Every structure is written in C-alpha cells, then in structure tokens.
TrEMBL record:
UniProt keyword annotations, A-Z: Fatty acid metabolism, Ligase, Lipid metabolism
Organism encoding this protein: Dendrobium chrysotoxum
InterPro entries to which the protein is assigned, alphabetical: AMP-dep_synth/lig_dom
Lineage: Eukaryota, Viridiplantae, Streptophyta, Embryophyta, Tracheophyta
Record-linked Pfam families: AMP-binding
Family named by the database record: Belongs to the ATP-dependent AMP-binding enzyme family.
GO biological process, one term: fatty acid metabolic process
GO MF assignments: ligase activity
Protein name from the UniProt record: AMP-dependent synthetase/ligase domain-containing protein
Boundaries of every AMP-dependent synthetase/ligase domain copy: 20-68
Amino acid sequence: MEGSVRCSANYVPLSPLSFLERAAAVYGERVSVIHGHVRFTWKETRERCLRLASALARMGISRGDVVSNLSFISCFSRCKFSYFCGIDLC
C-alpha cells in the first residue's frame, strides 16, 4: 500500500499463530505446502497444527518445553509445524 500511512485499520503485524488463522480463513483452499507429491491447503495445515499441538498438550508438553522428533518427516515439515505451533521440534 504505497503512499498510505500504517494504522490499525490497514496494518496489523501477525504472529505465527494469527498468520496461520488468517491464511486458513482467507486462503483456506489454496495450497500452503508442496513437498514431493504431498500437498496441503492452508485449512489442512491449520488443522494439522492444531492436532499436533493438542496431542503434545495431552502428553503434558507446554510452552518452553523442548521436543525431539526422530522420524522420516523432512526438516522442512517439522520446522514449519513447530514454528506455527509455538514448540521446538527441530
């Protein structure tokens, strides 16, 4: 928005979580992740993050805890989910 003044009506910095919520609401059916043959929409990415965060919370893991992940999931996927979920999976 060249030439406009930033204010709460036209500019609000987004946290990773608010970014994910907005992307799912605005671009829900658009592709957010392409990794090989795997594709996720923004809505699916949000749901996967919520499921992961919920599972970790049920295990007693909370903000500030460090989680190690040994799996076939690529570093890109692990880091993306951990970034949006506010946990450290890398």
